[in-house]
Amino acid sequence: MTMRTAGIHHITAFVSDAQRNVDFYAGVLGLRLVKKTINFDAPEVYHLYFGNEMGSPGTAITFFPWAGSRRGRIGGGQVGYTVYAVPTGSFDFWQERLHKLNISFALVERFGETYIRFADWDGLGIELVEREPGAMSKWSFGGVPVDKAIKGFGGAVLNSIAPDKTGHLLEHVMGLERVAEEGELVRFRSTGDIGNVIDLNRTAMGWGIGGAGTVHHIAWRAKDEADHRAWREHVLGSGYRVTPVIDRQYFNAVYFREEGGILFEIASDTPGFDNDEPFEALGQKLMLPSWLEERRAEVVRGLPPIEVRVLEGDTP
Hints:
By secondary structure, the chain is an alpha+beta fold. 16% of the residues lie in helices and 35% in strands. Keywords: Dioxygenase, Oxidoreductase. Residues 7-131, 152-269 form the VOC domain.
């Protein structure tokens, strides 16, 4: 059976401070905090989700802010750069914005596109690229107007310890099309109009070290729960060790580590982040799974207070 993912569902990373994380992704990048919950396996740690107005599949970046955690080192077996798509004609705005907020950046070229490359305050690699495809975000916050707002993921740059094997997986298991080569990069494209362009370093890299400023995993889209079950069987049948289906409240998940060392997840597009709170209130309340609700007071006491706030550089 031929299966093709539409592209990236979400990307999850480690950071060191919850409020700084909110200030960067909501304050600097203008994304919406669409879900404030906890790491189901470590309830003393937040799990924060940022994206477009709904946190739609292909727009959601998620974080575990672990206070005092060690700084990681980006390398093999990891996402090297998380790429965001911004509207055509917004490049000058984003360069001016980063300059105003004292965030250093560089311009890089590949495959005929220009990227703004920078890092968040924990060192996580980020790129912005203008793309015509993909729906415009309807969310505006702080100094980011809706017509300049990040649409969602443009894609990612992957670092592998065995790039030939990672490339084979992308093409022959995940169903991406190998479309171009340039220098040390191979470009793959999925069927979606966002989160759909993957650049793979074809030079094998030594292992990265997990920690703040590194990506934990990259998740790929399945249309619904039935498609998700089919994906699990497909990956199992391709020779990979896959976890059982795990209910993550807002999507179902399975995980496997591909031979290049990168932790992959396949996540269902449904049910979505409005599963347990209305659209207007997304991200405002700490949402807990049912088995932790009776411990709410204890969980809240163990978490630092956070707020979505406009940065000083954006105030009149």
